[in-house]
Amino acid sequence: MSRLDRYVLALLLATLVWGVTFPILKIATTRLTGVEISALRFLIAAVCMLPFVLRVPRHTWRDGLVLGCLVLVSYVGQAFGLEFISSNRSAFLTSLNVLMVPLLAWGLGARPGWVVLLAAVLACLGIGLMSFDGGAHLLADSTTVLGALAYAAYVLLLSRRAKSHVPHQLATAQMFCMALLGGVWMLADSGLGAVQTLPQRLDAQIVGGLLYLGVVASAGMFFLQAVAQRHVSAEKAAVIYAMEPVFAALFGWLWLSEMLTVRAVIGALIVVFAVVLSEIKPAPKPA
User: For the whole model, what pTM was predicted?
Assistant: First the structure.
């Protein structure tokens, strides 16, 4: 197995881990707001990264702040949109980042291959079949698309800057910046009174879910991203990340007994095909 194959599998593992977060988030939102969940998961992730914080150089803090801000904007845009539109519509609009990454790369001078572009289009089509259900809302749709654009910029920038940093240091810088900004966001959104009631609103199941979100899905997977995207192009990584809603639907079916329609299964199979297609290397042009 080639080195590139291992890094692709690492990103697939990350999407699988993120897929598990959807049923966990659904359970956690019975007691906590989306903002509180995001702030707490990043705080837990930052605690995990404490042993590395003193060795992070200044240039890594700079890139970590930019990357962390992009991820937070994507979370804010999606969280705000979910107040007005369905989760299915949100998932479809968020998946547009799969197309935005190669388009942004093109605008910055890169020339993604036709295979990756075709895979990105198929991935969006598959997610659309799985999730699109109408119900337009101009402001919510706009903020969700803005969040998708922010995440596309994050994926593109991470692929370009990851090689300049030690992976665990870059992950540490991102986590601390996101924990700080997320805490400020939580105070501004919920207010000090609501934050003080957090201990009363937590139970063993939600605490376990937050630990998974912080330790595994955030600290662990952001480190894995920082390692793998040193060797995987942003365009291909975006297609691989399209597997996240597929895994989310699978775990929702297994864990929460949510229904999977025939259309959703067909959409999921198209996404899987798109990921496989993105691994096909075009034949070299004759000299």
Answer: 0.77
